[in-house]
Amino acid sequence: MLSYSMLYPVNSDRRTSLSLDGLWRFRLDFEQVSGKENWKCGIKSDDLIPVPASFQDFYTDKKIREFTGDAWYEKDVTVPSSMKGSDVFLRFGAATHRAEVYLNGEKVGENEGGFLPFLVDITEHARYGEQNKITVRVNNELTETNIPCGRTITLSDGRKMTKPYFDFYNYSGLQRSVYLLSVPKRSIFDVDLSYEINGRDAVVRYSIKTKGEGDISLTLKDEEGNIAGLANGKEGCLSVKDAHLWQVRSAYLYTLSIEMRDGDSLLDDYSMEIGIRTVEIKGENILINGSPVYLKGFGKHEDSDIVGRGFNIGAMKRDFELMKWIGANSFRTSHYPYDETIYRMADREGFMVIDEVPAVGLFESLVNFLDAGTGKGAKSFFSKPTTPVLLKSHLKAVEEMITRDKNHPSVIAWSLLNEPESTDPNSVPYFEKVFSLAHDLDPEKRPRTFAMESNSSPSRCRCHHLSDFISLNRYYGWYILGGNEIVDAEKKFISEMEEWKNLNLNKPFIFTEYGADTLSSEHKIPSVMWSQEYQDEVLQMLHRVFDSYGFVKGEQIWNFADFQTTEGLMRVNGNKKGVFTRQRQPKDSAFLLKKRWESLPLNYKA
Ligand code: BDP
To answer: Residue of the nearest CA to atom 9 in ligand 1?
Structure first.
């Protein structure tokens, strides 16, 4: 169990969440002198930087953009004396990839893993009613023992540089919001929910973990504010008459309010929006509330101009409007859990989310997207002496992700790895541990999967039996037989699909990646690779194949928008497989997809 509560920060009668977003002082440790010069007591910089944001794309100096090592952030904050007597925390939405936190020069906490929140308890260290100096060392080096995987080299001029084993830019820094929290000493710590639908009625099963003892009561209110259910005690059921179900693209959210009391006195109160819905896999179908659904949508990234991977609330809103416009109903949080606000939006808009842990690059290759397609790269990634350390970080991220995200109705499945080397015999015990932890931690026992690259073929993949549904990343017509050879790509794709069919897995399949790089500037008839016309041709070919297999129950194209990657021969200032540009304007393929997705019913192929 985690040592701190992952509950989303709220303000209530007994809780205070103060945002520390805004300008922080910033300094990069180029000479690696922060220790000697004692930066933990003060970084002595007048450079101000916005939080949340990636630090990379603000500056004009390449040495800053490509900086690898320790980035220091600092802010002076008054901890209100009204917080005295409560438990007081600093909550970081994400610090990529690892951080050490100091308060008034004293080390108060540290964390490893760059895409999930962590809390630092400062109850005993804060100076109440006075200014406190928060100093954070954020390190962005990549290793093979933490996810996402990569390595860090040293250039001849002494600078470090990261070599990601994955295809997105290694943006870093304080990329999500920071809060100062006060939570009562005896408090609500965690909430588990699961649902049962009986005709028109529903049962919400709950279990509440607390810190310290107290009497728990729950009130469920509908969207009009009417009481829909009441319960007492740490564990039990709320019976909801005539329940409004959370449906795909037609969400209904109830408000669950939890109170913790000692006699008449209120110790703690916490409210959250929940959606009543069930998720199940039955044979080749994915069922939401007992009815089959077909997933239409995207693999995405948190990626936008200037703020990089920093949470961008404007881009988020635009992305949801575009996804609605195009007729999508789902997305995968490739390749890491996103900012919590995005799930709250998905809950409200009725999108289905495949929530992915940052386990990407578990396949040693610097051009994994290329090697994945060609059968190269079998180097026994899970057979290294360091594998147990990697597994530990992976399990930690799974625990944090599920604890954080389990109560979102939008989250319908867990993706536990992206394109791992599942051909290595030692991947099996590794995967078993990851899959079984996800099962244990999820009160709803949602389906689990991992996204498989081409080497993970029907005959070579050793782990697909663990997936509740099969997720395929396939680039027929791009990495495999592109351009004029597309006719052979289609044949090869069909022959792979026949092999899957012959395995009789009796599970749904989803395409979690497919597509073609396309420059929004390029038009050409007849088409050539990289032109918008070619992207359309690839999609038409792939859709033909998807449509001819009944067990294909979803398509999430790669990618929603063009996104930043490491520079290199294969990338034109980023990955251009977007259906939208990085500025969120449509390519031709957006209209093709809109036509298709608007015509496919939710229960397509049921
Ligand atoms: C897959 C990866 C994804 C890449 C994509 C591509 O999962 O991160 O961006 O291919 O090559 O290998 O575009």
So the answer is: 167
Beta carbons of 423 and 464 less than 8 angstroms apart:
no
The model's pLDDT over 9-45, given as tens digits with 9 standing for 90+, comes to 999 999 999 999 999 999 999 999 999 999 999 999 9
Query: Over the stretch 467-500, which tens digit does the pLDDT of each residue have?
Result: 999 999 999 999 999 999 999 999 999 999 999 9
Closest CA to 76 of 28, 23, 122, 36: 23
Environment class of 153 (CB within 10 Å of its CB; exposed 0-12, middle 13-18, buried 19+)? exposed
Distance (Å) from CA 586 to ligand 1 centroid: 20
- Ligand 1 site, residue 387, Cβ cutoff 6 A: no
Collapse the DSSP code of 244 into the 3-class scheme (helix H, G, I; strand E, B; otherwise coil) and give the result: coil
Residue nearest to atom 4 of ligand 1 (CA): 167
How many other C-beta atoms are found inside a 10 Å radius of the C-beta of residue 19? 11
Q: Tell me: the pLDDT tens digits for 456-467? A: 999 999 999 999
- CA neighbours closer than 13 Å in the CB half-sphere of residue 27: 18
Ligand 1 pocket member 365 (CB < 6 A): no
Three-state SS string over 560-573 comes to CECECCCCECCECC
Q: Which residues does 506 contact at the CB level (< 8 Å), separation at least 6?
A: 283, 284
Q: 153 CA distance to ligand 1 centroid (A)?
A: 23
Mutation to probe ligand 1, out of 165, 167, 376 (largest number of atoms < 8 A from CB): 167
256 has which bridge partners? 220, 272
Question: ∠ CA(334), CA(336), CA(340), 5° rounding?
Answer: 105
Closest residue to atom 12 of ligand 1, CA basis: 369
Ligand 1 touching residue 517 (CB < 6 A): no
